[in-house]
Amino acid sequence: MLKYKRILLKLSGESLQGKEGHGIDPVVLNAYANQIKDVVELGVEMGVVIGGGNIYRGLKGENQGYDRVKGDYMGMLATVINALALQSALECIGVRSRVMTAIDMEPIGEAYSKLRMEHALTQKEVIIFGAGTGNPFFTTDTASALRATEMGADVLLKGTRVDGVYNSDPEKDSKAIKFEEITFTEAYEKKLQVMDLTSFTMCREHNIPIIVFNINKSEDLKKIVMGERIGTIVKN
After folding, report:
1. Whether the predicted model's global pTM rises above the 0.85 cut
2. If DSSP codes are grouped into helix, strand and coil, which group holds residue 78?
């Protein structure tokens, strides 16, 4: 019954803020953990990449006078904090998981290895990837495309606050038009903000479809992996 058996879920750090406006809202965190549990119990093999914008954004630091490279490393540390929080929430509800970091941070997290990742996925552990790609100037969007490619994901699911890709910001424009399905080429030509160009190109080249959906609708993640048309799919 599963359409997607191996997935990469990308979550923004800002989504963890909830109504708090900063940091990590435990209600939101636990809701996401339970959605992941529902999917794993169906037999899905799953990786997760979380941004760090709820704690620190490298680009914001640059605007405030910080060195860009140091700012990006600070952002990577923020993603690790979020990864540890999600791991803790998952373990509290009986979901086996591990944090893998792109930069050596043992014992905080296990250094990323494709071989260890593959073994863990086949054991139905949720892999939470922290510290982005481990390199400055690359976003967590790029990290999610990279890890999706390395793990051979069937699809990259981008959980956002809106239910798909629109021709303008639906939170600001009540007349915004939603795309149910669009090609990578069309999305690029229309300059739609799906993901940054590096990650977008990587998914296109490796034929990994992207589905943009509202992560705050509790059943949508489960519906997607079972084949229901939710959100917007971007594909070749």
Report:
1. yes
2. helix
CA distance 27 to 87: 15
- Regarding beta strands 181-183 and 97-101, do their DSSP bridges make them parallel or antiparallel, or are they unpaired? unpaired
Helix (H, G, I), strand (E, B) or coil at 149: helix
SS3 188: helix
| Residue 126 and residue 48 in contact, taking contact as beta carbons nearer than 8 Å | yes
What residues are paired with 234 via a beta bridge? 182, 210
Strand segments (E) across the chain: 6-11, 45-50, 97-101, 110-111, 126-130, 155-160, 165-166, 178-179, 181-183, 210-214, 232-235
- Spatial CB neighbours of 88, under 8 Å, sequence gap ≥ 6: none
Say if CB 32 and CB 218 are below 8 A apart.
no
Judge residue 181's burial from the number of C-beta atoms within 10 Å of its C-beta, 0-12 exposed, 13-18 middle, 19 or more buried: middle
Its CATH class, for the domain covering 6-235, is alpha beta
pLDDT per position as a tens digit, 126-154: 999 999 999 999 999 999 999 999 999 99
Domain parsing of the chain, residue ranges: 6-235
